[in-house]
Design goal:
With 343 residues, this protein is α+β, with helices and mostly antiparallel strands. The chain has eight helices and 19 strands.
């Protein structure tokens, strides 16, 4: 367990904003957690759990508390049969590494188990996936999540929780709502994957890629390669460009609102979902810069920090985008990344 003092949040997050955290502790083994929480309690400081920092915005005031940086590693098979397999991954592993592992496993007939291949190249850790119920291209972690192991900071013990206990929804779980915020440190995630591979038609951009390259036979590796190619063409890599990935949540409409939207030519996907990237692009904002933040010219859903120096700049840029979309379409966008620190 490593403890550091006065570490800039900007160094820990991919948007590269934020003042200093009072303490940062790297959690390298499960047994570090009891000691780390005891350290924070003795100093009467709040705690915050951080993985890769790709879905967190640091605030200017820093964080007068203790950030736990997840460094737990390991992926292994628990059990399998001819139709399914259970994989356990420690929460500090990169989600994309777990996806790669799953598509290269022998399933008894072919290489590749199905269930998370469409989540390829999503930045962040395995532990963050249940928190936000991460999803893309028709898959979300809730569809394959079997259970999680956590350290419960309230009861000071490790627990095993089944997926149906986690209240998983769109970018929602017990880990990011209500009393669950900050209570649990996810130490590992168990997934149950299967052999029923995805079949066309796929999401529009993914299907277009397969059609363009005349790909008609599909397995998990093919899906992974396609998703990776589409994402590379649309989404800036946080390692190269300071961003937090998808910045705005999609808009959800009820049945009556859906009819009105479709009558105006606004695309509405299954479940009443309006893609916020489409709204931003068609509001004329793609490629535009506001207060040092640029709306990506590849994917309007992404804000790139080109020259913003503080959270205040980001907040003004965010509001400019929200106002423009609301003025044109009447929908109020909501930010997807979480925030850390004092404004």
């Amino acid at each position: 367990m490593k403890i550091r003092e006065n570490v800039p949040i900007a160094e820990l997050t991919t948007m590269r904003l934020g003042g200093a955290a009072r303490y940062v502790i790297e959690i390298e083994e499960d047994k570090d957690l009891a000691e780390a929480y005891r350290f924070a309690k003795e100093k009467d400081l709040p705690t915050y759990i951080l993985g890769g920092g790709s879905n967190v915005i640091g605030r200017d005031g820093g964080f007068n508390g203790v950030i736990f940086v997840n460094k737990l590693h390991g992926i292994y098979v628990i059990d399998s049969d001819k139709d399914s397999i259970r994989l356990c991954a420690k929460s500090g592993e990169l989600l994309d590494d777990l996806v790669e592992y799953s598509v290269k496993l022998w399933n008894g007939e072919f290489y590749g188990w199905c269930g998370i291949e469409a989540l390829s190249k999503i930045p962040g850790t395995v532990g963050a996936a249940p928190v936000q119920n991460v999803g893309a291209y028709g898959q979300e972690i809730a569809q394959t999540l079997h259970s999680v192991c956590v350290y419960d900071n309230k009861d000071n013990c490790f627990k095993h929780m089944m997926a149906d206990e986690l209240d998983l929804g769109y970018r929602h779980s017990i880990f990011n709502t209500g009393d669950g915020v900050g209570r649990y440190f996810i130490t590992s995630v168990t997934l149950e994957l299967h052999k029923n591979w995805l079949k066309p038609p796929f999401y529009t951009s993914l299907q277009a890629y397969f059609d363009e390259h005349k790909i008609t036979e599909f397995n998990p590796q093919v899906i992974r390669d396609g998703v990776a190619a589409v994402r590379a063409g649309k989404l800036p890599d946080p390692a190269e460009f300071a961003s937090a990935g998808s910045f705005f949540k999609n808009v959800y409409l009820d049945e009556e609102e859906t009819k009105k939207a479709e009558a105006k030519g606004i695309p509405v996907w299954d479940g009443g979902k309006v893609p916020s990237g489409w709204l931003i692009e068609n509001a004329g904002l793609k490629g535009k810069e506001f207060y040092g933040m640029r709306v990506s010219d590849k994917a309007a859903l992404v804000l790139i920090n080109e020259s913003a120096k503080n959270y205040a700049d980001l907040a003004k840029a965010r509001q400019a985008v929200i106002d423009a979309v609301y003025e044109k379409y009447g929908y109020k966008l909501e930010q997807e990344p979480m925030e850390l620190g004092d404004k």
